[in-house]
Write a structure and sequence with these properties.
By secondary structure, this protein is mainly beta. It has one helix spanning about 1-20, and strands spanning about 25, 25-30, 35-40, 45, 50-60, 65-75, 75-85, 90-100, 110-120, 125-135, 140-145, 150-155, 160-165, 170-180, 195, 200-205, 210-215, 220-225, 230-240, 245, 250-255, 260-265, 270-275, 285, 290-295, 300, 305-315, 320. The protein starts with a helix and ends in a 19-residue tail after the last strand.
């Protein structure tokens, strides 16, 4: 019997201890909910692709705050969302939020939905209205490929479409669409930039990936059209002519441990050849004994008319020619340390 009394006695003490833990000096602890005392977005009228500033004051006199979730909504579609960490029982928010332009997005009224939470899962919500966002307007855009080529995209008859013709790009290439360029023809990321996001064209920042284009059934890409409303790109291609030079007709060849692309063909003295794709790269060096570069993608042959082998080194980015049986005085081979070839 004494052991039973002891068990009841210990159980009672534990129950009193637990009860005291749940009480404070004012009695049992109660759940609370946050209060969003004030919230605003500035500017109220903005352009998709810009940032807005969300300011808010949130309090909870009884429970520590944990987070403020937000959604920016246009025409029933969530444009962007996120969560801002909170702490203590009073918190003032001043958060910059980037609002991207999504595909098929027209000018629209904007709502910002807020949900404030505390650590005990209490919550309060608020919707901010009276906001609006407009589509950005462009006078022109830039098509920038990963290998450094730049083409200006001009507006077409459809105000949302921008196009260029007369390209000499490879059938497949990676690219970004930019609103602005720096002085060295690289992308200025203070403007709008479009690239690949999960296989689709979307707005990106300087850490974003390039999109991919492929012109099927063609030797090279001649035309490019970008739809800034649907976020889509279309290409047109063409076939090489007799006086055109493209790596698609070259073959791979290993020479003394270096990888070359080579092509045997007839070259005519004084004739200008159109270079396509990588062969039109401004960084390429054409052997000045045999070539004169009249434009970035046009090369005039200076040697005697005859059959030659063209050699292209993709690492050194130089192009030179050779013949099967070179002989002096037309050809003189010099070799030694530092001379190259």
């Amino acid at each position: 019997m004494k052991s039973i009394y002891k068990i009841f006695f210990i159980t009672g003490i534990i129950a009193l201890f637990v009860a005291s833990c749940n009480d404070d000096e004012f009695g049992p602890r109660k759940e609370s909910t946050p209060v969003i005392e004030s919230a605003a977005v500035s500017p109220a009228d903005f352009t998709f692709g810009d940032s807005i500033v969300l300011t808010a004051k949130i309090i909870d006199p009884a429970t520590t705050l944990s987070a403020l979730a937000y959604e920016v909504v246009a025409e029933g579609r969530v444009v962007t969302s996120g969560e801002i960490p909170l702490s203590n029982d009073t918190f003032t928010v001043a958060q910059s939020i980037f609002v991207p332009l999504l595909s098929n997005q027209a000018d629209a009224a904007i709502q910002v939905n807020l949900i404030a939470r505390n650590i005990l899962k209490g919550s309060a919500s608020l919707q901010l209205n009276g906001l609006s966002a407009a589509r950005p307007g462009y006078n022109q855009l830039y098509l920038v490929t990963d290998d450094g080529k730049v083409a200006i995209l001009k507006p077409s008859t459809d105000k949302n479409k921008f196009e260029v013709d007369g390209l000499t790009f490879n059938p497949s290439f990676r690219f970004k669409i930019a609103e602005k360029l720096l002085a060295d023809n690289t992308i200025d990321y203070t403007g709008d930039v479009y690239g690949n996001v999960n296989g689709k064209i979307e707005m990106i920042d300087d850490k974003g990936e390039s999109a991919f284009a492929y012109t099927a059934g063609s030797d090279y890409t001649k035309g490019f059209v970008y739809d800034s409303y649907a976020f889509s790109a279309a290409t047109t291609g063409s076939e090489l002519g007799e006086d055109d030079l493209s790596l698609s007709t070259f073959r791979d060849e290993d020479i003394d441990g270096e990888s070359f692309r080579t092509l045997k063909r007839t070259l005519e003295n004084g004739k200008t050849y159109q270079a396509f794709g990588a062969l039109s790269d401004a960084q390429n060096i054409y052997n000045p004994d045999f070539f004169e570069r009249t434009a970035v993608d046009k090369i005039k042959f200076l040697g005697k008319t005859g059959e030659y082998t063209l050699y292209y080194n993709p690492v050194r980015k130089n192009i030179f020619v050779g013949v099967d049986n070179p002989s002096y005085p037309d050809f003189l081979l010099a070799f030694g340390w530092g001379l190259g070839y």
